Amino acid sequence: EVQLVESGGGLVQPGGSLRLSCAASGFTFSSYWMSWVRQAPGKGLEWVANIKQDGSEKYYVDSVKGRFTISRDNAKNSLYLQMNSLRAEDTAVYYCARVTTFFDYWGQGTLVTVSS
Amino acid sequence: NFMLTQPHSVSESPGKTVTISCTRSSGSIASNYVQWYQQRPGSAPTTVIYEDNQRPSGVPDRFSGSIDSSSNSASLTISGLKTEDEADYYCQSYDSSNHPYWVFGGGTKLTVL
Asked: CB-based contact (8 Å) between A59 and chain B?
């Protein structure tokens, strides 16, 4: 059974940093693109970043470029999102998702709140 | 990058059929696959349609997807509505015009009353 479990969310002040993790199991992690998708409170879904199987390609939504870094450790079956210079508008539930031609499996999400 | 526009909300009675539209702002809707995700309150999204009209295993055949090049839109149709279908539905596609970019529609709240 495919499982994706996010962790690392919490309350952080504006300008602060946070590192999210996603532990994957039930499939060959190194064979798939992976993604982060976020959802602000009461709002819709927004794609944040994708990473290729070997980490050689990474893509970001414009609003997080230069502030967020997606990475992975295939030996640990883990996906990460390093978030720096956080802003109030980054407040959201962050989901990790497996990517085929679409986001076929999603984790339950971790809440990031940026507030003073 | 293009945008995907959905109606904010739709409502219909149990047993009836509802269609949710998703209109692409620029470029052809047929250029890239469209997916549909269902999200119930407090839960993560799940896929109900992928690659325009394919249903994942476990999704009932009451759910169907299509694209219409004349209106440059995709549609999700749910027949024989059940109260359990009440949820938010999001369309999603992919833009490769500049750099790879994954696009979601704004979501449609389906009320079954």
From this structure: yes
